[in-house]
Structure formats: structure tokens, C-alpha cells
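Appendix B. Raw example, untouched.
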Amino acid sequence: MRTFLISDNKDTWVGMRLCGVDGVIVHSRKEVLDQINLVFKDDSIGLLLLTEKIVDLAKDEVMEYKLKKAIPMIIEIPDRHGTTRSGDAISQYIRDSVGIKI
């Protein structure tokens, strides 16, 4: 299984390429959705990395994929500037996914 990155940032893309991870740089919501659809059609990709800004462009669709599709697993990563998420991002994810406040 391969890992694939969808990034909004050239530095993150270059860093992942140095680790052997293929990927693309996109900037619009349409490009994000098109790339995600291409990844889900490729059975060789087992892990999809998305930068936080990419997730923000298509938050509802990404959450739906996370909930309904097991492969590829979607992981949200910060870019080189660090995270923009609040300290309770995991609690918020659980609340959105399961509907339980912890």
C-alpha cells in the first residue's frame, strides 16, 4: 500500500517527496475534491495525507469519507507552519463522528 499527499503547500509536498511519498499541490475546493476522487479510485493507496488547509476547503466531504470509507485511511497533518487547530481538535472530531461529547 502506498501513501499519497494532497497539500496546499510546496514545502510540505517537497518534504514528503524526500520521504518517498507521492502527492500533489492544489489550491481550490474543486481541485481537492477531484484529487480525493482519483485517490479513492486507486486501490494501491492505503493512506491519504491531507494538510489542514486542504481539509478546511472540503471539510464536509472529508468527514464523510472518513466515516464511510476504511481505505484509504485519511490523516490530517499540519503544514510547516504548525497546526492551526485548537487544543480540543480530537474531542471535536469524536463529537462530529460519533455524536458523543467527552
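End of appendix B.
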